[in-house]
Amino acid sequence: EPEVTQTPSHQVTQMGQEVILRCVPISNHLYFYWYRQILGQKVEFLVSFYNNEISEKSEIFDDQFSVERPDGSNFTLKIRSTKLEDSAMYFCASSFEQGVRTEAFFGQGTRLTVV
Amino acid sequence: AQSVAQPEDQVNVAEGNPLTVKCTYSVSGNPYLFWYVQYPNRGLQFLLKYITGDNLVKGSYGFEAEFNKSQTSFHLKKPSALVSDSALYFCAVRGRSNDYKLSFGAGTTVTVRA
C-alpha cells in the first residue's frame, strides 16, 4: 500500500539553527500539507501546497518557515532559525484531490527537538 | 471557526467488549468529519469519514462511526475490541467548502486489555 514517508524520524538541533524536514508524498498525489503537534497539544495545520505554490497557511506559518518541492518526489519544510517552541512532531500529508470530502494520508512524523 | 472536542483522554476496555471513542464538533455549515488512528511509531492512518448520506459510516478494521447532527457528535465505535486496537485516535473536521485544512481533536488513547 502506498504511503507517505518522512525523514528523519527524529531530529535534534540547537536553537538558531536551520532544519529541513523531508517528506515523500504518495506518488500520484497533487496536494501536500504540513501539520505539527506540540507535545500534549492538538495536531495543528501549518500549510498546504499545490502546483508549486502555497495555497493556504496558518498564522503559525510565519516567515521563518518555508516549503518547497525541489524535485518530482520530495516535499520539504524548512525552519530557518529554530526556537525552543518549535519542538514538536511534524507530520507531512498528501491527497490526490483537495476537496472537503477528501481524506489526507499522513506520514509517520518527524520529532523535532530544539535544545 | 471549526473545532473538535474529544472529551476523554483515555478509554480502557477489555478485549471483546464494545469500544466507543467520543467526538463532538463545532462548525458553521455542513461538517465533513474524519477519524484517524495512530499506532506507535506510525503516521496518522485514515479510518473513515462522514460526508453526507447515511449517518452510520463504516470504515477500516471493523470500525464505524455515527453522525448525529442534533448532538453535533461523531462517535467512533467498534462492537468487539481487539488488543491490537490499542492506539491513539483522532477526530477531525472540515467546515466550509473552501477550507481544506483539517482541525483535529486532542486525541484519545485507547487501551484494550486482554
Could you characterize the architecture of this molecule?
The complex is a heterodimer of chains A (115) and B (114). With 115 residues, chain A is mainly β. Chain A is 0% helix and 50% strand. Chain A contains no helices and 11 strands. In chain A, strand 4 and strand 5 (43-50) form a beta hairpin. The termini of chain A are far apart. Chain B has strands at residues 3-5, 10-14, 19-21, 24-26, 32-38, 44-50, 56-58, 64-68, 73-78, 87-94, 103-104, 108-113. Chain B is mainly β and 114 residues long. In chain B, strands 2, 5, 6, 10, 11 and 12 form a 6-stranded mixed beta sheet that branches. In chain B, strands 3-9-8-7 form a 4-stranded antiparallel beta sheet, with no helix packed on it. The N and C termini of chain B lie far apart (41 Å). Chain A binds chain B through residues 3-4, 6, 9, 31, 33, 35, 41-45, 48, 55-56, 58, 91, 93, 98-101, 103-109, and chain B through 32, 34, 36, 41-46, 49, 51, 90, 92, 94, 96-97, 99-107.
Distance between the termini of chain B: 41 Å
In DSSP terms, counting alpha (H) and pi (I) runs of 4 or more, how many helices of chain A?
0
Given the C-alpha coordinates, what overall shape of chain A results? Answer: globular
Q: What number is the mean pLDDT of chain B?
A: 92
As a whole number of angstroms, the C-alpha radius of gyration of chain B is 13 Å
Query: Count the strands of chain B?
Result: 12
Strand content of chain A: over 45%
From the N-terminal CA to the C-terminal CA of chain A, the straight-line distance is 36 Å
Order of helices and strands of chain B: EEEEEEEEEEEE
Number of H- or I-type helical stretches of chain B: 0
Q: Show unreliable segments of chain B.
A: none
General form of chain B: globular
Q: Based on helices, strands and strand pairing, what is the structural class of chain B?
A: mainly beta
Number of strands of chain A: 11
- Class based on secondary structure composition and strand pairing of chain A: mainly beta
| Major sheet description of chain A | 7 strands, mixed
Largest interface, C-beta within 8 A: A-B, 29 and 25 residues
Low-confidence segments of chain A, given as residue ranges, are none
Quaternary structure classification: heterodimer
